[in-house]
């Protein structure tokens, strides 16, 4: 069992101070903050299984178990909650339609195994090779196309109940600009609740499965399928997700290190191994893949409490919550109209995260290699290009990711050999002042 030292008097955090990962507040305060982290992750975590058709309770169970496993593997040094990753939505949806749920679960397992392998390499060789393989223009393109590839699915759901979907979408946007602090950060959850109430008033919700569900019971478990024709072709759609999870985990570690102690960066390899192990475990028994959650980083930044004790409480609370089939049935009753409104915002936000990677790293889009890396990858992903091969089909996510990697690396090789200046020249220099009042010469 991990041991923490008491921070100060256990009740307050002094101005400018933080509660470090190895510290804790009093147990009542720690338990309350753990529950708060469950609330922070809940809105996003339950949406993934609802959208993909996976059992909500099973995903929630392995979210909690994965969090505890993460804390163990990172030696209790890295505060993090592992929630359902949105990057899995597109490949799970496509794989389920193509070859069934078992095939989708095999894809989740494959991602977990590969992520853990990347973690072992990073642990011993460092992160430079990842940066070389996936520079900002490539990483941004891959993350963006994963979100935009889902646009047709959002529209399909939206059309099922346009009024409810519009209210849900409008509520999400308004919540993000009206509310301050915590409520603003969970605007998607707020919007879904409002949309659900509207759907209830409009008679769009079926509660028959809720009435039949027990209050207490084990979640549903499913095993991966390795025999159905088309399974291994479906797995190929999951491979780009590995790149997304690497980027998310590395960003999480760097964020926590910035706010606490630079030595936290030394846990990067272990974080990747831990998330890989948690994702593999979830996929083996019917849960969705996991990732470190930005929502919970926001809570830590607001409270200045980075204690891993809080996350032990959150993980245990999630496990206990997953043992109620009735709660799972309530979440499964969310109608398609509400999901259509929520996913219109959500899928677009995933795409915007990719674009933000370009902005944050000041990618130079005056260079043809960068232009075509982003342009071709996005069109392939948005349009849903596909390629039929013997025994399986490659979808827009795989083809778009492959195009981004090929155009960037091969294009740079040729441009530099020919000295045409079309290659990626690195970050562009900022033009003019970045902030504050204009300075006269």
Q: Could you spell the SSE succession in H and E letters?
A: EEHHEHHHHHHHHHHHHEHHHHHEEH
User: How many structural domains can be distinguished in the coordinates?
Assistant: 1
Radius of gyration: 22 Å
Beta-strand segment tally: 6
Main-sheet strand order equals 1-2
**How much of the residues is beta strand, in percent?**
under 5%
* Measured distance between first and last alpha carbons: 62 Å
> Structural class, from helix and strand content?
mainly alpha
**Low-pLDDT residue spans:** 434-441
Continuous helix count: 20
Q: What is the helix content?
A: 55-70%
Instruction: Please tell me what the overall shape is.
Output: globular
**Biggest beta sheet attributes:** 2 strands, parallel
Arithmetic mean of pLDDT: 82
Indicate the multimeric state. single chain
Membrane topology: Multi-pass membrane protein
InterPro entries: NCS2 (IPR006043), Xan_ur_permease (IPR006042)
Family: Belongs to the nucleobase:cation symporter-2 (NCS2) (TC 2.A.40) family.
Main location: membrane
């Amino acid at each position: 069992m991990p041991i923490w030292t008491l921070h100060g008097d256990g009740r307050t955090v002094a101005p400018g101070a933080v509660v470090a990962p190895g510290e804790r507040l009093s147990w009542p305060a720690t338990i309350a903050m753990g529950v708060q982290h469950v609330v922070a992750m809940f809105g996003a975590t339950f949406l993934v299984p609802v959208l993909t058709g996976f059992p909500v309770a099973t995903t929630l169970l392995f979210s909690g178990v994965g969090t505890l496993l993460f804390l163990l593997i990172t030696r209790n040094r890295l505060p993090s909650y592992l929630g359902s990753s949105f990057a899995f939505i597109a490949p799970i949806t496509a794989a389920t339609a193509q070859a069934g749920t078992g095939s989708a679960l095999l894809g989740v397992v494959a991602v977990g195994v590969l992520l853990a392998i990347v973690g072992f390499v990073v642990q011993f060789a460092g992160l430079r090779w990842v940066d070389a393989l996936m520079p900002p223009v490539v990483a941004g393109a891959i993350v963006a196309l994963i979100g935009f590839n889902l646009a047709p699915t959002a529209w399909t759901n939206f059309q099922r109940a346009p009024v409810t979907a519009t209210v849900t979408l409008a509520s999400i946007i308004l919540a993000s600009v009206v509310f301050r602090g915590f409520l603003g950060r969970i605007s998607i959850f707020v919007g879904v609740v409002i949309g659900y109430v509207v759907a209830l008033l409009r008679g769009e919700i079926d509660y028959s499965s809720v009435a039949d569900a027990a209050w207490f019971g084990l979640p549903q478990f499913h095993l991966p399928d390795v025999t159905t024709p088309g399974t291994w072709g479906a797995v190929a759609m999951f491979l780009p997700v590995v790149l997304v999870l690497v980027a998310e985990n590395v960003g999480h570690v760097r964020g926590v290190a910035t706010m606490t102690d630079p030595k936290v960066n030394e846990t990067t390899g272990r974080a990747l191994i831990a998330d890989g192990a948690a994702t593999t475990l979830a996929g083996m028994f019917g849960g969705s893949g996991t990732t470190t959650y930005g929502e919970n980083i926001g809570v830590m930044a607001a409270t200045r409490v980075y204690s891993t004790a809080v996350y032990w409480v959150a993980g245990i609370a999630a496990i206990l919550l997953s043992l109620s089939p009735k709660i799972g049935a309530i979440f499964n009753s969310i109608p398609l109209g509400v999901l259509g409104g929520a996913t219109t915002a959500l899928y677009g936000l995933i795409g915007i995260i990719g674009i933000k990677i370009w902005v944050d790293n000041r990618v130079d889009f005056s260079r043809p290699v960068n232009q075509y890396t982003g342009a071709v990858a996005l069109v392939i992903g948005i349009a849903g290009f596909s390629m039929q091969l013997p025994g399986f089909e490659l979808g827009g996510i795989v083809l778009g990711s492959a195009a981004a990697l090929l155009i960037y690396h091969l294009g740079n090789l040729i441009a530099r050999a020919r000295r045409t200046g079309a290659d990626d020249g690195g970050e562009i220099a900022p033009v003019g002042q970045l902030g504050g009042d204009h300075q006269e010469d």
